[in-house]
Amino acid sequence: MIDTVIFDFDGTLADTNQMIINSFKHVYSVFLQKECSEEYIMSTFGEPLELTLTRDFEKFSYEDVVSRYRDYQKDRFNQEVTLYETVEDTLKYLKNKNIKLGIATSRLKNSTVSALETFNIAKYFDVIVSADDVTKHKPDKEPLMKAINELKSTTEKTLYVGDSKFDMECAINALATPVLVGWQLNSNALAKKYNIKHVLEKMWDLTNLI
Q1: Of the residues 34, 52, 79, the one at which a domain ends
Q2: Which residues are catalytic?
Q3: Which of 40, 58, 60, 175 is the most exposed, having the fewest neighbouring CB atoms within 10 Å of its CB?
Q4: What is the pTM of this model?
């Protein structure tokens, strides 16, 4: 019986896709004076930002690049980012059912908490595991296992809800049940590649799995 649901954040709870794409395009233009394809940017979704930026901008200071990246987002988050349909209703329903809820994300802690507070949904989560809480990142199982352990739960009673290959591999590596959101362009391909049994059309569909 499922008693725990852990979520990714970007692309899962909140639609941050276009803001992230625009942010990457901005720093590519500033530092590398070239364009970056949206397909490539989306392939990095789920990676820790530091890993992506240090790899792609190895000749530049990470602090300079990430500062430009975050400055670009400062005045855009509230205007460009929204929760996906039925997210808050679903969280409220699960909480009322005494389901343990957590976050396992590749975002940094301050950024994650700020985003959750912006949407007034931080109150639903019992634990938040972010990139600065672990040494190994998704697709390694460490972020998910840390959340499960802090919730005093078990993998066989846990659903991990995400949108990227990193999320699906993380759930599989942890022996938890992977749940894929179905609203990304590559959702069907991911579901087929990883043989995902549970694909959500909207977040409320999650209530059928509890």
Answers
A1: 79
A2: 8
A3: 58
A4: 0.91
